[in-house]
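Quick one - inputs below.
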Amino acid sequence: MTVGLVVQKFGGTSVGDAERIRAVADHVARTRRQGHDVVVVVSAMGKFTDELLRLADEVSPTRPPRELDMLLTAGERISMALVCMALTANGVESASFTGSQAGIITDTDHTRAKILEMRPDRIREALAAGQVPVVAGFQGVSTAKDITTLGRGGSDVTAVALAAALNADVCEIYTDVTGVFSADPRVVPKAQRLAKVSFDEMMEMAATGGRVLMLRSVEYAQRHGVPLHVRSSFTWEPGTWIVEEDPTMEQAVVSAVTDDTSEAKVTIGGVPDRPGVAARLFGELANRGINLDMIVQNTGENGLTDISFTVAVLDVDAARDACEAVRSEVGATKVTTDINIGRVTVVGAGMKSNPGVTALMFETLSSIGVNIQMISTSSIRISCVVAADRVEESVRALHSAFGLDRVGP
Amino acid sequence: MTVGLVVQKFGGTSVGDAERIRAVADHVARTRRQGHDVVVVVSAMGKFTDELLRLADEVSPTRPPRELDMLLTAGERISMALVCMALTANGVESASFTGSQAGIITDTDHTRAKILEMRPDRIREALAAGQVPVVAGFQGVSTAKDITTLGRGGSDVTAVALAAALNADVCEIYTDVTGVFSADPRVVPKAQRLAKVSFDEMMEMAATGGRVLMLRSVEYAQRHGVPLHVRSSFTWEPGTWIVEEDPTMEQAVVSAVTDDTSEAKVTIGGVPDRPGVAARLFGELANRGINLDMIVQNTGENGLTDISFTVAVLDVDAARDACEAVRSEVGATKVTTDINIGRVTVVGAGMKSNPGVTALMFETLSSIGVNIQMISTSSIRISCVVAADRVEESVRALHSAFGLDRVGP
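Output:
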């Protein structure tokens, strides 16, 4: 990489204690010595957020969202001030900035605010003055001038949004794993670290159980053309680049196999196959704020059909209630739920030009006697719902069948 | 008290854990039920600030003041969010505000900033909306838009400044003692809680070793005519009112006896008694940023004199160096220091019209064989420097001699 502007984001484990914070400062100083300008984004230290939530539980059964945001944003304040102190000890001039000071303007939806506008004037000034700005991840200030948080994965969003606004050359996401893997290494010991993944692939992986990056920050990065580099703050070695797909490059047919057992299946059966039924059903679910994932409907016999969908396990009771509420109105016969399901997914940008992937996936699952309950696809992804207790062996079999197993010890 | 606006400030021990925070919320709710509008000011929880400083020590040997302020202001953020949650559980509508949000504008002198301006618009709006604003003590925002802290006793200053700006009827300072006492109860078991103290008396007490309130917040309160009420957040009973002296009331001759062993004495001896010597000496001390307290000079024999002054024990070496630096220039013969000294002080607004106080003080100290090394007085105070190991018995003897001992068990 030529000399340029690098945004470096450090997650909770990367700033988990004094020693880790000093290591982060060493790395930032090293990056500066290579001639780069650096903007640092930090999360709260390790388990600090959990401690604050435990304290809140002790104090009150209710947590007004505005106050929850005020409470949790203390975390990044601590880590960023400590990182600046460690940078000073390294001879690197720096200054910390809250989300508000960094010009991260959000809507007023506390605990899961969306960024409306980036006005990082003070960050630009600090860079121009030769300083390393250290910015609080996860937090912003609303149009009503209240402190907000960006929800799960919010620090990554902060980093990507700053990289986009500052036109950075790369946004480095430092974490406790060495990159993005071809499968969860806890499930597939032979999983390999991927050197490069396209934004589209990464989004499909994030949406189907990949745990390294949240969908939201990848989307933001793609929309603004910010290359991401996911790497380890423990080994500091190069990790996985997430970049725009290069049309001149040959793509791996399948890059990764993901798994997700956090969902449940709901089936509404014996539905008359006529217009408006699905609209009524999914309208009711939407009204109740239930997010659906996979939806499958087959035209059945006798003009009747089954509609199945998956929801987060936490929402399964609410989803059943919603279905029951419209059951007689739409003329369905019954509603069933199953929380013992999981999803296995193969993702690969090269799938678009390789029609055999679906067949190999089904064959592989069939060969180990795994029954497929639902199927859903995109141009670069195939997902199958299977029994939860068959998920891990399915992932291993698919990882092997698609030639992803690491060679050697 | 008639219905009005009350500012209630809770110190670190008053919000030290979840149970204490719930007790604070109960008390605020009670005050609201009595019909008062309430503004709450909170410090960081108990030992939290010490924990943050320990963490900073682990991370780095240097602490840039700007970052130290960013670090420490996390503390009030946590306690105020938790207080709001507890208020919500009590059915009281509230909202937390950082120093910046509360419009506390300071200079840029990090770690000991001074308030330049109060713009508590959001606090007024919250009150108008029927809410209890909960404000972070100790912190503000500088004219350079950086987070600042107000130094020792800063949360009291925040409370008094808000009470002044909002024209509150009283500023209640809740702490872990039940009020202001006629002497430190650890030194004088028969010390009594004072029902009422004048601003002038309280300032003399704060300046000479009284530990309940800092000089600065009392000065601010007097300047803006804000009545203070120091009371306990453990018993919730009425404590000590600190108010403007009422000229129609008869004053106690002596209200309190204070002690202070945090200072050392420096003497520069054999100084020629001619104009300019003191100016040269104290100019040098001021240039080195050394704060002096008592200064005593006697005209001696042979045109030579001794000049003695007291400084904080921490500054004694620097003070000696400063004196040595000018010694030959001013023609002095020697510089001596003594860290084993202490100060005992009697304070009383009624002293102005009672000329016998000085005599009784000297007689009392003489009767127990205590030698007086230095004397300094104001219209309502007499201080004597004595040997450090005689301070406590001197305080007890004076407390008794001036009729302050509590009657009964």
